[in-house]
């Protein structure tokens, strides 16, 4: 064989192992090595000076990320980390991504981070930022806090990107044209899960609902999905035990789940107060889905397809932890702004809002297809990941569900069903 052939084989093998190492999840040791290398490169760049713009800066965009300090509930396990920086690194990475293009076209991006303390008034603090001329806000607020924002005078002159609240009311009767919702709503999540359960022919449910408000909202969405996809809820119960399940679950759960014959136990426990203790303790051996077990979500640490592994590794290298849904939502919001400003060559609020809600907008977001916003309620349409704690199981919409505009609109309330009126 010729020397050229051996050279070709060597090159191919090298390329394969390089690609393989980049698509695999990195170990802690590898992450630390990468982090050190990143620091060295940063020092070298600082010696050379900051990265220069290829064109004169013509557009400067400031994006404000705001979170709220909260009283943290007890964690389910001592293994659960308590995070107080969700969203921060998502914004940071998205700004870097925006600048990759921005340096070539003369668009600069800056991010400000604000955390409103428990004893501070959210509305007044927000108004201060508006008076400073801030126009683009990525907010980590719950439903009540977002509803409060909607009442602030002049709020319609800014753009708000919700990265946490999943309440359907924010996409329906309480919708606003300048409020964009990155998280999937409860109805989208429940439809995504139901499509898969129907595909598996698990059409007889035992529905368990937690005591909190959001548990009931999720449960209501699951009931609507069951009706929509012709699923029978054989039994429904409210979980109202107050004892320490770490000690009593083995006795209480079998009795609680004894009764009707069902295919799958579906759980609505948003705070994670009891759902994890249902597995392996039910009277009948059944799978668990919903907020625990097989869970529908926008992002998951086991997601590796469509370049997601590289994103996971970038995030872990920067933050030292896994990327959460809120982190992903924050990244998506900032990237959506960057994509729009690049396409429209403008950061005027009205122009940006119009483009985001238009048919031309589309963003690659590690989901295999471009994500976009529903023009009738500002909800981001996106594939939904269905994952067990340590493995990716499926992605919805499931095969066979069709729609005249987008298969992604088979999940959640479609335009004819929406009560949102801009």
Fold and architecture overview:
The protein has 422 residues and is α/β, with parallel strands linked by helices. It folds into 2 domains: 59-183 and 304-382, Response regulator (Rossmann fold), CATH 3.40.50.2300; 187-297, 3-Layer(aba) Sandwich (Rossmann fold), CATH 3.40.50. The protein has 11 helices and 15 strands. The strands form 4 sheets. Strands 2-1-3-4-5 form a 5-stranded parallel beta sheet, with helices on one face. Strands 7-6-8-9 form a 4-stranded parallel beta sheet, with helices on one face. A 3-stranded antiparallel beta sheet has the order 10-14-15, with helices on one face. A hairpin with a 2-residue loop joins strand 14 and strand 15. Helix 2 packs across helix 9 (308-319) and helix 10 (325-344) packs across helix 11 (349-356). It is globular, with a radius of gyration of 23 Å. 37% of the residues are buried.
Query: From N to C, what is the helix and strand string?
Result: HHEHEHEHEEHEHEHEEEHHHEEEEE
Provide mean pLDDT, rounded.
90
Strand order of the largest sheet: 2-1-3-4-5
- Overall structural class, as computed from helix and strand content, comes to alpha/beta
Instruction: Assign the CATH class of the largest domain.
Output: Alpha Beta
CATH topology assignment of the largest domain: Rossmann fold
Please give the domain count: 2
Strand content: 15-25%
- Report the count of strand segments: 15
| Number of separate helices | 11
Layout of helices and strands, plus pairs?
Layout: H1 3-23, H2 28-48, E1 59-68, H3 88-105, E2 107-116, H4 122-131, E3 136-140, H5 143-149, E4 159-162, E5 179-181, H6 186-199, E6 204-209, H7 213-228, E7 232-238, H8 245-257, E8 264-268, E9 288-290, E10 295-297, H9 308-319, H10 325-344, H11 349-356, E11 363-364, E12 370-373, E13 380-381, E14 384-388, E15 391-396
Parallel strand pairs: 1-2, 1-3, 3-4, 4-5, 6-7, 6-8, 8-9
Antiparallel strand pairs: 10-14, 11-12, 12-13, 14-15
Helix pairs in contact: 2-9, 3-10, 6-7, 10-11
């Amino acid at each position: 064989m010729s020397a050229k052939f051996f050279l070709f084989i060597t090159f191919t093998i090298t390329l394969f192992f390089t690609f393989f190492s980049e698509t695999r999840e990195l170990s802690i040791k590898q992450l630390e090595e990468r982090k050190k290398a990143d620091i060295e490169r940063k020092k070298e760049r600082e010696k050379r000076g900051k990265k220069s713009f290829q064109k004169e800066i013509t557009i400067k965009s400031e994006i404000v990320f705001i979170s709220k300090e909260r009283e943290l509930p007890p964690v389910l396990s001592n293994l659960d980390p308590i995070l107080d920086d969700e969203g921060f690194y998502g914004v940071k990475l998205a700004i870097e991504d925006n600048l990759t293009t921005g340096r070539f076209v003369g668009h600069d991006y800056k991010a400000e981070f604000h955390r409103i303390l428990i004893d501070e008034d959210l509305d007044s603090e927000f108004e201060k930022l508006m008076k400073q001329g801030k126009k683009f806000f990525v907010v980590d607020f719950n439903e009540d806090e977002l509803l409060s924002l909607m009442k602030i005078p002049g709020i319609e002159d800014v753009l708000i990107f919700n990265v946490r609240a999943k309440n359907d009311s924010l996409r329906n009767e309480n919708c606003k044209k300048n409020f964009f919702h990155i998280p999937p709503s409860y109805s989208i999540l429940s439809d995504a899960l139901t499509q898969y359960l129907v595909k598996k022919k698990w059409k007889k449910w035992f529905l368990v609902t937690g005591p909190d408000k959001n548990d009931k909202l999720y449960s209501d969405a699951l009931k609507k999905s069951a009706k929509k996809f012709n699923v029978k809820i054989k039994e429904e119960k409210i979980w109202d035990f107050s004892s320490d399940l770490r000690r009593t679950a083995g006795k209480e759960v079998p009795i609680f789940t004894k009764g009707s014959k069902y295919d799958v136990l579906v759980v609505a426990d948003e705070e994670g107060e009891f759902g994890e203790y249902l597995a392996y303790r039910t009277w009948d051996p059944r799978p668990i889905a919903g907020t625990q077990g097989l869970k529908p979500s926008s992002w998951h640490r086991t997601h590796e397809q469509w370049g997601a592994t590289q994103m996971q590794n970038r995030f872990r290298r920067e933050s030292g932890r896994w990327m959460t849904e809120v982190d992903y939502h924050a990244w998506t919001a900032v990237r959506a702004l960057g994509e729009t400003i690049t396409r429209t060559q403008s950061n005027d609020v009205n122009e940006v809002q119009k483009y985001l809600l238009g048919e031309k907008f589309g963003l690659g977001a590690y989901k295999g297809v471009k994500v976009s916003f529903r023009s009738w309620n500002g909800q981001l349409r996106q594939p939904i990941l269905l994952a067990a704690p340590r493995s990716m199981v499926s992605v919805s919409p499931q095969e066979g569900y069709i729609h005249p505009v987008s298969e992604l609109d088979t999940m959640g309330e479609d335009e004819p069903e929406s009560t949102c009126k801009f």
